Amino acid sequence: MKTAENFTKDFQNIFHTTKAPRIFFAPGRINLIGEHTDYNGAHVFPAAISYGTYCLGTKREDQKLRFYSMNFPEKGMIECDLSDLSFNEKHDWANYPKGIFLYLIENGFHISSGADIFYYGNIPNGAGLSSSASIELATGVLVEGLYAEKINRMELIKLGQKVENHYIGVNSGIMDQFAVGMGKENHAMLLNCDTLEYKYAPIHLSNHVILIINTNKARKLADSKYNERHAECEAALRDLQKKLRINSLGELTKKEFEEYKHLITNSTIRKRAKHVVYENERTLKAFDQLQQGNLEAFSKLLNDSHISLRDDYEVTGPELDTIAETAWELDGVLGARMVGGGFGGCAIAIIEKDKAEAAKEQINAVYQEKFGIKATFYTATIGDGAKEITKGVVI
Ligand code: GAF
Q1: Which partner for 350 in 83, 202, 270, 334 could form a disulfide, CB atoms 3.0-4.6 Å apart?
Q2: CA–CA distance, 248 with 39 (Å, rounded to integer)
Q3: What is the ipTM of this complex?
Q4: How far is the CA of 197 from the centre of ligand 1 (A)?
Q5: pTM surpassing 0.90?
Q6: Where, by residue number, does ATP bind (predicted)?
């Protein structure tokens, strides 16, 4: 078990200092439903989880930034100067915090001197649980704390997305940074990605839990087909705009889509747009069902979401399909679907507490037989968004 004191010692050993760092945490996230809808101005329904990134730091006297991650010890200490925060391939994972520093400074945030910053994350990287947004927001709240200047939370969230879009080169939407920045214990968030209006919904699962199932097939959004899907949605929108005055696919109802889908000439692109429009309606319905405590109807929508991501959006792949399809057949499972960008990463399942252990074994029996690797499991605890941690046990 790691405590604030353990982390402090690790920090002091790595940076050869006796100074006491401040400690911050940003969660990862799951997404209950609303996948690949955020960059289409539609709804998402994510929640922050208790796994995430711990970030410790002290200010320096000079202009140096030094980054160290316990998750990537082989990368060693990564150093740069505040006067050159440009993207550097060699800086690997540290480009995420560098991007945050750069854009904060460009936005007028006053950073007078450098810092030593240490990271430890307990969310698997590249598993669709937003490890990168977690690093971005953890860095943001650390900068806010160390340099004693309030950063508007929504601005920080947008800045994290800008790091992904313009610094790293992934055309992702705002869902991950939003969930990591705005999370609330035991609540999911329904976000309209066009207006950025949001509502919290308590997650009451009675005798069920949310099981996170990691395929252990890592993928990076940067080299997945993520940007290709984004471009396909833009192409669909352009076709529809020949007749319709809309700014995003998220504005369309299912009925309108069915009426105008013929305007999208390419059948693959039509399927992509169909997923977005139908998924948006599913997300709104799922929010209502969860509010009404109808867990069965809610979970059924999760299954439909997976099927749409598999058949129309084509972002699941054999590993995620095997996990979801196996889970659907198991005793005690109400629903299961992939989460995040897809092509690997994690799925979630809503499952009766008492049946979870048996389900894990049954899923792995099938999964291991087929792919020669084991899936790993986590029980999701829904926690708060990015914040400072003061004392006591942190992990
Ligand atoms: C990734 C992206 F970062 C999000 O913006 C979102 O598009 C998601 O994939 C798919 O719903 O996590």
Answers
A1: 334
A2: 9
A3: 0.99
A4: 18
A5: yes
A6: 69, 126-132
